[in-house]
Amino acid sequence: MPGTNLTRDEARTRADLLHVDAYEIELDLSSAREGGTFRSTTVVRFTATTPGAATFIDLVAPSVEEIVLNGVRLDNSAFADSRIALPDLAAENELRVVADCAYTNTGEGLHLFVDPVDGETYLYTQFEVPDARRVFASFEQPDLKAAFTFTVTAPANWVVVSNSPTPEPQGEGDTRVWSFAPTGRISSYITALVAGPYVGVFDSYENGEQKVPLGIYCRPSLREFLDPEAIFEVTKQGFDYFQEKFDFPYPFAKYDQLFVPEFNAGAMENAGAVTLRDQYVFRSKVTDAAYEARAATILHELAHMWFGDLVTMEWWNDLWLNESFATYAEAVCQAEAPGSRWPNSWTTFANQMKTWAYRQDQLPSTHPIMAEINDLEDVQVNFDGITYAKGASVLKQLVAYVGQDAFFEGVRAYFKQHAWGNTRLGDLLGALEKASGRDLKSWSAAWLETAGINVLRPALTLNTDGEIESFAVLQTAPALPAGAKGEAVLRPHRIAVGLYELNDGALVRTDRIELDVNGPRTEVPELVGRHRPAVILLNDDDLTYAKVRLDEDSLAVVTENLGGFTEALPRALCWASAWDMTRDGELAARDYLTLALSGLPRESDIGVVQSVQRQVKLALDVYADPNWREQGLARWAEAAEQALRDAEPGSDHQLAWARVLGSVARTDGQLDLLAGLLDGGTVIPGLAVDTELRWALLGRLAATGRADEAAIGAELARDNTAAGQEHAASCRAARPTAEAKAAAWASVVDSDELTNYVQAAVIGGFQQADQRELLAPYAEKYFAAVKGVWESRSHEISQQIITGLYPALLVEQGTLDATDAWLTAAEPSPALRRQIVEARAGVERALRAQAVDRAAGER
Ligand SMILES: [Zn+2]
C-alpha cells in the first residue's frame, strides 16, 4: 500500500508514459467559513505514448463524487489509497474528477485560518512537496508540467490571488466567481491560491518597456504593521540584479507577495504568488538582523522564479540544487546589488548558513549533498542543513573555483536552453564547464557525492628572527559519525589566507593570498621569508566549506582581541570557529562563556551578537557541567542585565540583551526587573516594552512561577490576536507545575486539535531547561507515543512533535539507553529513524562536552 507515498520509479514510469497539456480546476470555497470540505472539480487533458496502458492520478480527499475518463464514468472505487487508477488510456485523454477535499489546520494543502481579531476566514495553499493533490486531482511530480487554469467561487467580499493575475470577479449576491487565465507550463507544486478578505498594496517594477505589477498582501489586522516601501525596495533591487545576472526577463505576468498566517516554512516560491510567514510583518520592534533575514527570504523566493520555477528539477534528488542556488543568490544579491542595505551578507552567511551546515554535517544522518531520494518520504525529511546550507556553501566554493563571471555566464546559457523545462544536475554542470573551461567531474565527485567536513590547519615554522621558514595548509578527511553514508575524502579547496597585524587593539588585514589547496599538505611559498603577522586566518573571506583551526599564536591573539578585527567577516569566522570547538569538546563551555563575555561588547554586527547569545545559552543549558551550570547561568544573567543597562537607549543591542535577560533571569532582583518592565514600574530609557517583548518577559515569569494563569489571561486580553493566543499557550505550558506539563503534553500528544502554530508554541513552552525534574517522567511517555504520532499525524505536525518533545534536555546515559532500546524494538521507518537518531546525537554530543567542561573546572 503506497499510502500517500510515491516512489521515484513510479514517477519515472509515469513521466515516460504521459505528457500533460492542461488542467482546468474549479474550486467552490463559498462555504469556507463553516470549514469541513470544499468541492473540487478537475479536468485534465493529457496524452499517452502507449495507448491501452494504465496509470494513476494523485488525490488526497475525504471522498470522490465522480470520475470520468474519456467520456466513460469509472466506479468511485477507482479512488483508493490516495490515488485514482486510470485504466486503458487513449492516445489523447480527458479526465474529469469531482471530489470533496478538506481544509487543513496543519499548513499543508489548503490551510484555513480564522483571525480572532475580525472573526474572518483566511485561506492559502502550500503544496511543496506533494500537496496540490489535497486540493485537486494532479499528477504530483515536478516533471509533469502543464498549464493550470483556476476558477474559484468565493464570498463576495474576498480577495482571490493565484499564479495568474487576479481577474475582475463576476456574479452577484453573496458569492463571486474568479476566472483566472491559464498559467505557463509549470509544476503542480508551485501552483497557488490565496483567498480571504486580505488587503493589498500595489506598485510595479519598471525597466524600459517592461512593467511587472507588484502586490503585497496581509490580513487587515496586520496592515498597520506592514512596511510595503521596504519590501518593494528589496524586491525591485532583486529584479534589477537577477534580470541582469541571468540575462532573462522575469518569466511571469505579475509578482505578488502574500504574508499568510501559520505558515510552516519561511516562504514558498509559488510562481508569481509567493507566500511568506506573516511573522515577517513585524508587530513589535525587531533588530536589523530580522529585517536582513526578511530581505534575504524575499530575494531567495524571487531567485526561484528563474531557478526552480522557470527551470525545474526533474525529481526531488536535485532539491538541494534548487535550494542552494536560491540561497546563494539571496546572499550574492544582498552583497552586490546597488543600494543594498546589507552589503555584509557574507558575514551573515558565515554566521548562519555555515553554522547550520557544519552542525547538520556532523550528525549520524549526514549524507552527500546529492542524496538518494527514492520516494516522497525521503524528500520530506531532507529539507535540512545539507540541502540548504551546505549546498549553498559548496556553491559559493564552486563560484570561487570557476570564477564569478564564468559562473553567471554558465547560468545564463542554462536558463536560455532549459526555459519552461526540467533538468538534472548535469545540465547545470555542463553549462558551467563550457563557460569556465574547468572540468567539474572530479570537483563534483569530491563535493557532491561525499559527506562530511574537512579540517584545515596551518603548519608553520619560524626562524630565530621571527620570520616564516615554512608554511603549509594541512587538510584532514572528515570524521564521519558511525553509521554515516559514504567515504571520508580530501577535497580541492579554493581558499584565501588573511594576514592580520595588531595595532592599538585593532586587527587589520595587511595582505591576502588566494590559492588552491589539494591533498593532505599544500605548501604556501608566498609566505616564506615574511615576518610572522599577529594572526594568520585560513579560509579568510569564507570561500570554502571547511572547519578551520588557528595556530597557537594566532589563537592567543584572537582570544584576547576577537572584537579587534575591524571587518565583520573575520570576526564572524573566529566566532564560528570558537563555537565549533565548543561543540567538538575542544573548548569548554565555561571558556566559551568567557570568550563571549569578552568579545561581545565590541561586536557591532547585531546578527552575530544574537547568534552568539543563543549559542551561549545552549552551551550553558546542555554543554556545561551540571554541577557548575548554575554558576554559569548566573554569570550570564548578570552580564545580560548589565549590558541591558549599559546599552545605547533604543539600540538593537539593547533589545537583544533585554531578550537574553528575558530567557535567563533567575534571581529575585532580575525577576523583579522583568515584572517591573511589564507593569511599567521600571523604565529603562529607550527600551520599548512592546507586544512581543512583553510576551517574552511574561514567558520567563511564567516559567519561574512568578506569573499565574490570571496574569497570562490578562496579557491575552491585551493582545487577543492569533500571535497572542500562541504566546499564551506557550506561557501556560511553561509553568513549573506537574499539572501544567500534563495539560501541555495531553494537548499535543493525545489530541490533534491544535493548529500547527499553537502546537509549536506549546512544545516550546513545555521544554524548559530549568525544569528537568518535571520533564523527567516524559521521556518514557515520549517513546511510548512517538510511533503512533508518526503514523497518525500529518508530516509537519508529527515532525514538530518528534523533534520538539524528544528528551533533549535530559543529558544522561539513560536517555541514550532508552533511545537505543526504542530503536531496536520499534522498527521505525527510515524517515522516522532519522529524526530520532539525530536527536540522540545531540544528547551524545552534550554528554561529551559536559565531560570536557567538568575537566576544565578541575584544572
Ligand atoms: Zn527555497
List unreliable stretches of 5+ residues.
none
Within the largest sheet, what's the order of strands? 5-4-8-2-1-11-13
How widely separated are the two ends? 60 Å
Please state roughly what percent of the residues sit in beta strands, choosing from under 5%, 5-15%, 15-25%, 25-35%, 35-45% or over 45%: 15-25%
Largest sheet: 7 strands, mixed
Helical stretch tally: 27
- What is the structural class? alpha+beta
The average pLDDT score comes to 96
Q: Compounds present?
A: zinc ion
- For the secondary structure, the number of strands is 28
Short description:
The chain has 27 helices and 28 strands. With about 850 residues, the protein is α+β, with helices and mostly antiparallel strands. Helix 3 (about 290-305) packs across helix 4, helix 20 (about 720-735) runs parallel beside helix 22 and helix 26 packs antiparallel against helix 27 (about 830-859).
Q: How does this structure look, described?
A:
With 859 residues, the chain is of the alpha+beta class. Helix content is 43%, strand content 20%. A 7-stranded mixed beta sheet has the order 5-4-8-2-1-11-13. The chain has a 5-stranded mixed beta sheet with strand order 15-16-17-19-18, covered by helices on one side. Strand 6 and strand 7 form a beta hairpin. Helix 4 crosses helix 7 and helix 14 packs parallel to helix 16. The radius of gyration is 28 Å and the shape is globular. It starts with 7 loop residues before the first helix and ends with a helix. The model has no long low-confidence stretch (mean pLDDT 96). Bound molecules: zinc ion. Zinc ion (ZN) binds next to helix 3 and helix 4.
